[in-house]
Write a structure and sequence with these properties.
Layout lengths: L4 E5 L5 H8 L8 H10 L4 E6 L4 E9 L4 E9 L8 H12 L4 E6 L4 H5 L5 E2 L5 E7 L15 E5 L5 H12 L4 H9 L4 E7 L2 E10 L5 E8 L2 H13 L6 E7 L3 H9 L6 E7 L11 E3 L9
Parallel strand pairs: 4-5, 11-12
Antiparallel strand pairs: 1-2, 2-3, 3-4, 5-13, 6-13, 7-12, 7-13, 8-9, 9-10, 10-11, 11-14
Helix pairs in contact: 2-6
Bound molecules: coenzyme A.
């Protein structure tokens, strides 16, 4: 079969079709987050589109700063697979980030795709655990007891500077634009943890493309605080159809919470990089920011 298509940056009007392509598999992001990531990096998400305009594939490699880029959301519409569309998307995506260190999370059966394209560095200390679950959420099994002197506050613009400072301290670079856009998505609820007036974590929940509660980012110094934030965030989206969350395998508290809720593991992903391992304190990462677009 000959397919005539072009590879070009995602435009806002493509988003419904991109979601149709993505819903054949499960992706955790929300509709609005696609718009936010293309504001952060206008050429960071690309699509393959037929001459008719129909979108048949998508791939993201978002530039975060001069050194770091992160990839994901890679999917080709069934019926158009095995015709090199995925390869074209990957080649252009990899070119986009120039010589930055490009990270991504890979399914075990897809390792060869990336190993063949120069992703020679593998994280061996941990993997990414993806939870993608449809069904009711039993938050009663989660603790509601905050440690002494810790309070949780509902998001307000007044807390943005505290959140930026905390986020930068944990991740190592400034992400204020995307942090702000994420907190301001219309379905997002954010909680900010303070101990004696100092920000010690923050967490968000939103409704994603399959109407589940997508928890993330959820970062905190003390995982007991993380557990309470997780519970209270989920309680703010009672109409959610399930849970979408990505954790780090060595964060035992985060994964223990999900286990107690009897939510099964969806997939275990391997972290690859084109150049070098990125190091953060994974004890503080209860849930990823956005598993397809951000390293943590
Ligand atoms: C992975 C996917 C995007 C590939 O798209 P495609 O248009 O069929 O890919 P191409 O025909 O251009 O092939 C590109 C490479 O992928 C490999 N590939 C394609 N389908 C594959 C599959 N199901 N399993 C493993 N490798 C696969 C090809 O062998 C080729 O590798 P090579 O060039 O290194 O030899 C597509 O199969 C898909 O959407 N799958 C579901 C979502 C998914 O798994 N995404 C990747 C998450 S890590």
């Amino acid at each position: 079969m000959m397919i005539n298509y072009k590879v070009r940056p995602l435009r806002p009007e493509d988003i419904p079709e991109v979601i149709d392509v993505s819903l054949q598999s499960t992706y955790q992001y929300s509709k609005e987050s696609l718009l936010n990531w293309i504001k952060y990096d206008p050429e960071g998400i690309i699509v393959a589109a037929l001459d008719s305009g129909k979108v048949i594939g998508v791939c993201a490699t978002v530039i975060h700063n001069d050194e770091v880029a992160f990839g994901g959301a890679f999917c080709v519409l069934e019926g158009y697979r095995d015709f090199d569309v995925g390869n074209k998307l990957l080649v252009q995506s990899i070119k986009h980030v120039e010589n930055r260190n490009l990270g991504l999370n890979c399914r075990a059966d897809k390792l060869r795709i990336y190993k063949n394209r120069g992703f020679s560095v593998t994280e061996h200390l941990w993997s990414i655990l993806e939870y993608e679950y449809l069904g009711s959420l039993n938050t009663k099994v989660l603790s509601d007891a905050l440690p002494a002197e810790v309070v949780l506050k509902a998001f307000s613009d007044n807390y943005l500077e505290d959140i930026y400072t905390y986020d930068k301290m944990l991740i190592g670079y400034d992400r204020r634009e995307i942090v702000k856009e994420n907190c301001k998505e219309f379905s997002t609820k954010t909680l900010v943890a303070f101990k004696r007036g100092i920000c010690v974590g923050y967490g968000c929940v939103k409704i994603n493309i399959f109407d589940a509660a997508r928890v993330g980012p959820l970062y905190c110094n003390d995982q007991k605080v993380g557990e309470v934030m997780f519970k209270r965030l989920l309680e703010q989206v009672p109409d959610a159809k399930g849970l979408a969350m990505s954790t780090i395998s060595n964060n035992l508290i985060a994964n223990g919470c999900v286990k107690r809720m009897r939510i099964p593991l969806h997939d275990n992903l391997i972290r690859l990089y084109s150049k070098e391992i990125m190091v953060v304190n994974t004890c503080k990462i209860f849930a990823h920011f956005d598993v397809d677009f951000s390293p943590f």
